[in-house]
């Protein structure tokens, strides 16, 4: 089953360094194939090099796509991480 959702990056640093590493770590917990799509590029969301290579910054919109048994749960958790956890980082 394929699930996907668009999400806008709102934190200051975007999907770089620490947030990217945390995202990849979360994606790795799922059995589904998970990808991030940004400006017609698709990368494996479980690859730190892939995620960093996108250069996603604040205000950019990405699509998170998961394909597998736990796709729905993966999308829910990863989108929540972007919208809630990454946004909190700016408050520190």
UniProtKB/TrEMBL annotation:
Main localisation: cytoplasm
Gene Ontology annotations of biological process type: phosphoenolpyruvate-dependent sugar phosphotransferase system
Domain HPr span(s) in chain numbering: 2-92
GTP-binding found in the keyword field: no
Cellular location(s): Cytoplasm
Keyword entries, A-Z: Cytoplasm, Phosphotransferase system
GO cellular component: cytoplasm
Pfam families assigned: PTS-HPr (PF00381)
UniProt-listed InterPro entries: HPr, HPr-like, HPr-like_sf, PTS_HPr_His_P_site, PTS_HPr_Ser_P_site
UniProt superkingdom: Bacteria
NCBIfam families referenced in this protein's UniProt entry, alphabetically: PTS_HPr_family
Function: General (non sugar-specific) component of the phosphoenolpyruvate-dependent sugar phosphotransferase system (sugar PTS). This major carbohydrate active-transport system catalyzes the phosphorylation of incoming sugar substrates concomitantly with their translocation across the cell membrane. The phosphoryl group from phosphoenolpyruvate (PEP) is transferred to the phosphoryl carrier protein HPr by enzyme I. Phospho-HPr then transfers it to the PTS EIIA domain.
PANTHER family, per the entry: PHOSPHOCARRIER PROTEIN HPR, PHOSPHOCARRIER PROTEIN NPR
Entry protein name: Phosphocarrier protein HPr
């Amino acid at each position: 089953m394929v699930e996907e959702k668009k999400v806008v990056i709102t934190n200051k640093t975007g999907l770089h360094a620490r947030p990217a590493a945390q995202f990849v770590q979360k994606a790795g917990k799922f059995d589904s194939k998970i990808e991030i799509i940004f400006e017609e590029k698709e990368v494996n969301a479980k690859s730190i090099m892939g995620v960093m290579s996108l250069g996603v910054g604040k205000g950019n919109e990405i699509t998170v796509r998961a394909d597998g048994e736990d796709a729905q749960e993966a999308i829910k958790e990863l989108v929540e991480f972007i919208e809630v956890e990454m946004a909190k980082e700016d408050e520190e």
